[in-house]
Every structure is written in structure tokens, then in C-alpha cells.
Protein 1
Amino acid sequence: MSLSRPDAAHPISESADEVGTGRVRQLYRDHSSSLVRQLTRKTGCGDLARDVAHETFLGLLRMAPEGLERIRQPEAYLWRVSTRLLGKWGTSKALRERGTPTLEVIADPLVDQVATLEQRDTLRRLEHAVEQMKPRTREIFLAHRVDGLSYTEIAERMGLSVKGVEKQMSKAIAKIDRLLDRG
């Protein structure tokens, strides 16, 4: 994916457009490889993961600079956008592969809609739970669950002991369980 500067011949001002492009470049450098790794794990297909990540960053390029500046948790935001894109891709691919409608085809979307609504509700509650965490706990939780870092890697990165990371993860999981009504 090329996030290069627009042609100098373009009558684009260097103000907002360049600031937005610079922010996207930085997000790409910081998060693209981990996003592709996560998507590859989720889909089992590296090519699909790269395509979805590419589309995710293209979407960022289309955003107004003010919108980019409002992104406070880039990893979570990128994951959310790419997961939505993956869902749209799966739905459109499934519809293209289906031939003539049958009762099974008609029933599937209804089941999918209910499952989608349940997943959205769960995701919304999970996002709320993560937002309610103390900043350090949230950072540790996201580093482990989103970035895939081990407790040892997180401990080294944050200057904590592994036991300290374990304690913060326990707090995070307990918070999520309480807010998702699991415990």
C-alpha cells in the first residue's frame, strides 16, 4: 500500500490534507503489521488479511483530518473497522456464490441478522467495559488481547513485573465480566 504524498502539481493545500495524510502514514507504520497478523489469525488467509487492512487504511485516507484526530485508541479503532469490512466482504461473497434462492437461503439472513445484532450489542458492551478501565489496565489489556503481546513482553515494555501484568489482566477481565453480566 502506498501512502505517498500527492503530486506537487495537484492544487491541494498543505494544510489539512497533508496533516491527515501524515496521521494516516503514522498509523500505518505503527499498526499495519499487527492488524494484518490479527486478521490473518481470524481469517486464516494472509491475502485476505492484507486486502482488508488495505481497505481499512484507504478508509482512513478518506476521513477528514478532524475525524482522524478524534481517534484516541487507534488499534481498537482499526480492528473495529477491519472487522466490519471483513463482515461486509463475507456477506457480499456469500451472496455472490449463492445461486437461486431456496428456503435455506431465505432463512440464513434472518439468523445472521439476529447473530449480528447480538454481536454488535456484545461488542458495544465490551467497548464500554474497556473504556471504563483505568488507563494502565486498559493499555495492558489491549496490548495482550489486541496486539497479541505476552505478559513478559508487556512487563518489559511497561516496566512492570509479570505478576503486576497478571494482576492488571485479572482486574480487566473481572471488569469485563461484571459489565457483560457474566459473573
Protein 2
Amino acid sequence: MPERLALGFRRAGLGEIPELNALIHRSADALSAGFYTPEEIDAANRYVFGVDTTLVRDGTYYVGEVDGVAVACGGWSRRGALYGGDQRRMVEAPVLDPATEAARIRAFFVHPDWARRGIGTQLLDVCTAAAWDEGYRALELMATLPGVPLYRMHGFVEVEAVSDVMPNGVAVRFVRMRRQITSRPGVSVVTD
């Protein structure tokens, strides 16, 4: 396991969405190679991969920084949508009941120069702790194919394989995954 970096995590702001979308697309372009075809990557970048401003407004989308430079982003949600950025909004997602429903892990992307250094794990811990603090005891997500190994490593199990046909006709493959939260990770939750 790579050495964990000393990162700073903070809540994302609405003004930095263009910068975060650029990070997301750079991450997807580089880290999806070998998992998706170039056509799938292009379609996902165009129609799926991007910031969902609902998460930013809810205060549940985070930026991971090293020396003030954004190297990762991702978050969790108390709303029902599993995936999708602003460019292809799914139906308006209702607020979930933490007593009976799973919080959503959403839109994790790491800059390719910082990949495979434990950043995704640290971000997952931050999100898990925040969901735990709000009473959620399960997490659910729609994993990209390159994200599946990370989530498996952290106890997520496959619920179903999904193929989402984009507006341009290209089908992009995802894996819906879920796990229980049995304890709160020992991390500080981002406060601002």
C-alpha cells in the first residue's frame, strides 16, 4: 500500500467548478485508458463526468489539495442520485432517509500525476465519516471501471453491472456497488 499523503481537504466552492471539471476530465482521460475505449471516455466526459453543483451547494463535495493545488475531488450525498454531473442531470434526487437508505459516494477523481498514492482512500474516509455523522450506516455508488478496484479494496460489493447509453449512442459501462458502515473512520470531517 502506498504511503498516505498529508493532504488538506476542504469543501468545494461554486466558483471553482470549471477548474474541477478540468481536473475530472484530465483524470478520466488518463486513468480510464485500458478500461474504456476512447469513444466511451469521450462520451463519459461529455455526458457524465463533471461536478454536480447540488453536492457543492450541500457542502458535501470536497477538494484535496497539496500546497494549495487541487489534486483530487469527490464527495458524498444525502440525495438519491448515484452519478452524473450538471451536463446531464438525472431526475431531481430526493433526500434519503439515513435510517433505511444508503448515502451516495459521488464523483471521485484524482489528477493522474497524483494517482495511486492513497488519495482516494483518504477522501473515502472523509466522506464515510461525514455520512456516519449524519446517521447513515451504508454507502452506495456507481463506480467507473477504473474505480472498481479501489472500492472493492474498501469492502464495497457489486450490486449490478450497468450500461448507460449516452445521448450520442455510445454505451458507457459502470458498476453499482454498496457497503455497510460499521464504524466511523478516525478522520476529521472537513469544516471549511
Protein 3
Amino acid sequence: MTKQEYQTLSEQAVPPSRWVRNCLRAFCSGGAICAIAQVFFEGFTALSFSETEAALLVNFVLIGTTTILTGFGLFSKLGKFCGAGTFIPITGFANAVVSPAIEYRTEGLIFGTAAKMFTVAGPVLVFGTVASFTMGVLRQLFLWIFA
């Protein structure tokens, strides 16, 4: 079988891409999560919390809800249906921390839950910190050179 024949067969076997549907689901689900967060924010400010306190409470609600949904195995089902929209930074990060902690809890509190908790989120934290530090240094150098 030649490379061209293999390419033709593999293209026939691949299901058609549903990128428009996936984009719409991600957009709508991410927007719905943000709209729900805004409703909570408005509710907390209506209860006389300051904007800073309300923002912290909204983060607490989003992280807590994601943790509970992940614990019951519902967040992954929601993620399969909604796609990337469910992984807006705070909910996606909470899921990335909680999932390995739940998966490795049988190995014990220290070597299971605590050690594996940041296996997915750890590289994100490390490279995010390094990238932001590098960009900060480059920005400062740029300002010094061109100021």
C-alpha cells in the first residue's frame, strides 16, 4: 500500500469534523458559566458585600461547585457535552486539581492525594509563572531601552 492509498483510506475512516457545533457549544456553555457567576456576583453585592468580597465569594462558589461535580463524576460528562466552554480558567483549574486527588486517594493521603493533586495543574503553574516572569522582565527591558 502506498502512502497516497493509505492517506485516502484514513481520510475516509475519519468522521467529519463538527467544529461549528463544538465552537457554539463551547461559546454558549462558557457564556452560561460566566452569566451564572455574574448573577452570584450581583446577588452578593445586593447582600451588602463589597465588590472584592463578592468576587472572592463567586470564586468560592465556582470552585466548590466544580469540586462537587467532579467528585460525583458529573463535571466530565458536562465537559464532554459542552466542550472547552467548561474549562474557563477557574472551573478548569479546579477540575484539574481535584480529578487526580480523587483518582489517587486509594494510595493514601500523603503519597496519593497530596502528591498527585498537582500532576496536571503543576506544569500549568510552573510554566505560567515562568512565562509571566519572563514577559515582565522583557517588558521592563523594553521600557528601559525605549523610554
